[in-house]
């Protein structure tokens, strides 16, 4: 049995947790399960593996670790895993470094052990060998465009949040084209003081927008940010590009729509990362910002590294305002969290 006892955060974080668990279980040929009610059960195939939490006997305690109440008290423990010999709670191994799937699978006699995983496991290279399987497991539901609303900035928009006008590009016959760009613009909690270092605003995305001519620009952000007075300025900054702003209240549907584009620009967000990773986009613009968890100098999230060696992923360096060529992914120095010469 492989179980995940830690569900914290929102859609993107939970997808990393379940992906790691599912890959370990699939590699060992054993069952994995997750509780119903998490956002990732909006994926049809993931929903099939979910169970009602009250049905779990919950009687096991891991040494001095948390009781199995389906959440770990140490929510910042990004990379922990435990392997148990029996169901009585005896701790065999615990790692708090950058845990890889291969490290877990390489543990002696792992096939005969009950595995318990605690953490987000946000290392991109964990998942690239399993990308096609993950695309299958996280198959998107059918997108119902009736769930979507589209807006444009009013021609007279001057910073007042009421200046949105409804726009339906699909009724107008403007279907998404291979030369359109979608921007995953994470606002909401990224605009508060605690997470402001993670916000990538217009000045960052300008690097991408000025790099080539895009047909149309779509922006997907948190639904509550559209019409939110304090966040409107971040959308207004894109006015010169006449963006189509997308609102949908179903996170998986929003992800499915964005993943259908051939050009995707992501934020410092696990949700954004999964859009890119599950897509077949020709160009993914991945941020290398000056600060925040995707930067090369970040210490707060030192156990996380979502850079991956995927064809078509272009690294956008905020410091030099350059977009690195595709071959740059071969120069990633993962152990030292930097680039090779």
Helix content: 10-25%
SSE pattern = EHEHEEEHEHEEEHEHEHEHEEEEE
Mean pLDDT: 78
Low-confidence segments, given as residue ranges, are 54-79, 85-96
Strand content is 15-25%
Structural class: alpha/beta
Number of helices: 8
Q: Quick one: overall form? A: globular
Major sheet, described briefly? Answer: 9 strands, mixed
Give the termini distance in whole angstroms: 44 Å
Number of separate strands: 17
| CA-based gyration radius | 21 Å
Number of separate structural domains? 2
- Name the strands of the widest sheet in spatial order: 8-7-11-10-9-12-13-14-15
Explain this structure.
Helix 1 (about 10-30) packs across helix 8 (about 270-280). This protein has eight helices and 17 strands. It starts with a strand and ends with a strand. The protein has two domains: about 1-135, no CATH class; about 145-340. Helix 6 links the parallel strand 10 (about 215-220) and strand 11. It has a nine-stranded mixed beta sheet, sandwiched between helices. The chain is of the alpha/beta class and about 350 residues long. It has helices at about 10-30, 45, 100-105, 130-135, 200-210, 230-235, 250-260, 270-280, and strands at about 1-5, 30-35, 50, 80-85, 90-95, 115-120, 150-155, 165, 180-185, 215-220, 245, 265, 285-290, 315, 320-325, 330-335, 340.
């Amino acid at each position: 049995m492989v179980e995940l006892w830690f569900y914290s955060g929102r859609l993107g974080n939970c997808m990393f947790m379940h992906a790691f668990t599912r890959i370990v279980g699939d590699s060992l040929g054993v069952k994995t399960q997750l509780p119903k009610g998490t956002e990732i059960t909006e994926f049809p195939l993931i929903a099939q593996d979910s169970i009602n939490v009250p049905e779990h006997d919950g009687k096991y305690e891991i040494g001095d670790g948390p009781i199995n109440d389906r959440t770990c008290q140490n929510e910042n423990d990004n990379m922990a895993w435990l392997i148990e010999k029996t169901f009585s709670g005896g701790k065999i191994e615990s790692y708090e470094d950058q845990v890889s799937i291969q490290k877990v699978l390489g543990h002696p006699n792992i096939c005969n052990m009950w595995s318990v995983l605690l953490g987000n496991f946000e290392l991109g290279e964990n998942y690239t060998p399993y990308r096609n399987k993950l695309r299958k497991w996280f198959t998107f539901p059918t997108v119902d465009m009736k769930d979507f609303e589209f807006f444009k900035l009013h021609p007279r928009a001057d910073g007042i949040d009421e200046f949105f006008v409804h726009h339906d590009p699909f009724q107008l016959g403007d279907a998404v084209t291979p030369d359109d760009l979608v921007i995953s613009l994470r606002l909401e909690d990224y605009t508060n003081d605690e997470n402001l270092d993670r916000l990538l605003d217009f000045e960052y995305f300008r690097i991408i927008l000025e790099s080539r001519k895009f047909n149309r620009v779509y922006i997907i952000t948190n639904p509550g940010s559209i019409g939110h007075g304090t966040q409107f300025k971040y959308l207004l900054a894109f006015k010169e590009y006449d963006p189509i702003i997308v609102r949908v209240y179903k996170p998986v549907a929003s992800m499915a729509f964005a993943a259908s584009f051939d050009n995707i620009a992501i934020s410092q967000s696990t949700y954004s990362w999964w859009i890119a990773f599950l897509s077949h986009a020709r160009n993914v613009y991945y941020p290398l910002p000056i600060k925040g968890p995707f930067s090369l100098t970040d210490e707060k999230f030192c156990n996380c590294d979502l850079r991956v060696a995927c064809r078509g992923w272009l690294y956008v360096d905020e410091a030099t305002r350059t977009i690195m060529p595709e071959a740059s992914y071969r120069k990633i120095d993962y152990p030292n969290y930097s680039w090779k010469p």
